[in-house]
Design goal:
heterodimer, A: 257 residues, alpha/beta, Rossmann fold, Helicase, Ruva Protein, domain 3, 53% helix, 11% strand, B: alpha+beta, Arc Repressor Mutant, subunit A, 2 domains, 14% strand, elongated
Chain lengths: 257, 154
């Protein structure tokens, strides 16, 4: 497999969100929200955006719920400013640093801060006083947490929202072609997508196996037989959907078929 | 040091978002015809640089100063966010060529910014950023290489 980044639908839409937030005038609210289930490529998206766009990154920690000072200190260290240990002074420094750099701030694992009003209000203050775009990235339940009544002032500031979707057939075909130089028929792509549950990590594992099999059989296309053989090596993985129903059984049945 | 007119226009245009010449003149406190002419010239220059785009006749939108990161900066940023990485990770994230990534990683190892953490016989070398908390924001530059390039050019 090639070491390349494939611009999938999720990656393109996420980049569009970041770009539109940067380009929005500062008088408008510039908070963004990107969320989705695990394995859909959120972390890779953040790494890719951070590498290619001037922005700052901070990952929320569980300890922040106990200490607001620590949160401000972590933000300051993201801007490479030495914290003094005093909340008031540190916050002032943080606003100054954010204003000076004028680059967006990406906050990963934002569902950890959304649970505590004080922390979210602090993020809102950073957005309001420094006038920088703030992008919250989190798991799927972040949107429900932000819909709470006491979060109204924060949620109204979120002007760009994107939910990471599971991989679709086009994505599977695109990834197979770009990374492995292998063609993939719609039916096969559909089978791969179902087996992988739209998870990018599982798709990578499957494609690596399929590439080896294609190479051994001198084939330039992933056939259904190869896809089934590659799928048999995938680890059994159950994903609980929003309704709380386990889908392991469904994927198991598909593999047998 | 005072701001230049272009810098002032950039700031005002950023605050306004969509604007016309009159809005901009108001925001910049321009009163004389001479100043207005200067402003128009500066706006034209910004339009040429594509920082400002024309929506329709007389109406503009500020697009922002888009200074793309170079490959070395992208590699350094990828290293900073990954902290533990392989050559392939950096190539994937930065889009730089294999040779370029290898050369830069070798330089960083020599300069003491990163180190190998994979043992002997490990196929893909695993690197690690030595001090992630205090790693500089701007990418370290390989001075010896630039000197060599300068010599070659001269």
């Amino acid at each position: 497999m090639k070491d390349e980044t494939v611009i999938t639908r999720n990656l393109a839409q996420g980049a569009r969100v970041v770009d539109s937030l940067i380009k929005k005038p500062s008088r408008l609210s510039r908070m963004g929200l990107i969320y989705g289930l695990w394995g859909y490529g959120k972390t890779f998206f953040i790494q890719w955006i951070y590498s290619n766009v001037v922005c700052f990154y901070c990952c929320a920690k569980t300890v922040w719920a106990r200490s607001t000072v620590m949160m401000v200190e972590d933000f300051l260290s993201a801007f490479r400013v030495e914290p003094s240990g005093r909340l008031r002074q540190d916050f002032r420094e943080l606003i100054r640093a954010a204003k000076k750099n004028h680059a967006p701030l990406i906050l990963d694992e934002a569902d950890r801060i959304v649970r505590k009003t004080e922390l979210v209000e602090l993020v809102r203050d950073i957005h309001d006083f420094a006038q920088i775009p703030v992008i919250l990235v989190g798991q799927e339940n972040i949107i429900n947490l932000l819909h709470r009544r006491n979060m109204g002032s924060v949620f109204s500031r979120i002007t760009e929202i994107y939910e990471f979707q599971p991989l679709d057939i086009t994505d599977v075909q695109q990834v197979a072609k770009q990374l492995c130089e292998l063609e993939c028929h719609i039916e096969t792509a559909s089978f791969i997508r179902t087996v992988c549950l739209g998870d990018f990590r599982l798709l990578n594992t499957l494609l690596e196996k399929a590439e080896n099999l294609c190479h051994l059989n001198n084939k330039a296309e992933i056939t259904m037989a190869i896809a089934k053989e590659a799928a048999s090596t995938l680890p059994e993985r159950g994903r609980i959907d929003l309704t709380g129903k386990d889908q392991t059984e469904t994927s198991g049945k598909l593999k047998v078929a | 040091m005072g701001k230049t007119l272009t810098q002032k226009i950039r700031q005002a245009a950023f605050d306004l978002g969509d604007f016309n010449s009159l809005d901009l003149a108001k925001a910049l406190n321009i009163n004389t015809e001479k100043e207005l002419r200067k402003m128009r010239v500066a706006v034209r220059e910004l339009k040429y640089r594509k920082e400002i785009i024309s929506l329709r006749r007389g109406f503009y939108r500020y697009q922002g100063k888009q200074k793309p990161l170079n490959k070395t900066a992208k590699m350094w940023r990828a290293i900073r966010i990954k902290e533990r990485f392989t050559r392939q990770d950096i190539k994937k994230l930065s889009g730089a060529s294999k040779n370029y990534v290898v050369a830069y990683l070798n330089f960083l190892v020599k300069a003491g910014f990163i180190c190998h953490i994979s043992g002997r016989g490990f196929k893909g070398k695993l690197y690690c950023l030595i001090e992630p908390e205090s790693a500089p924001l701007n990418h370290p530059v390989n001075r010896t290489k630039t000197k060599k390039e300068e010599n070659v050019k001269s």
